[in-house]
């Protein structure tokens, strides 16, 4: 029942922001969908007496010039935005760490080569010393 009020309040709020009367708004919706909703249906959605059908959420949000998420609570939208920001931040950090790991692998490869060369030189020196 709570979602009825939230969505209805959002529809009413954004409809009023656009300065659209209920009949004008419902006419736009009906023209978009080829349907026959009444201003009374819109009134019942806005007051929480009824919930608009789920398939109306995309057209409603389009007419209201908002995302479907904005029909739900601001807290939910804010949480989604915060999660998306965190994902972006973690993705960037991950990319930086990958570059750092690649650089360390290259340095390790070079050091292994130097160590192998040094070991070969030492082995040769030991062999030469034993021959003398």
From TrEMBL:
SUPFAM superfamilies: lambda repressor-like DNA-binding domains
Keywords: Coiled coil
Coiled coil spans: 73-114
PROSITE patterns attached to this UniProt entry: HTH_CROC1 (PS50943)
Domain HTH cro/C1-type: from-to ranges: 38-71
Name of the molecule in the record: HTH cro/C1-type domain-containing protein
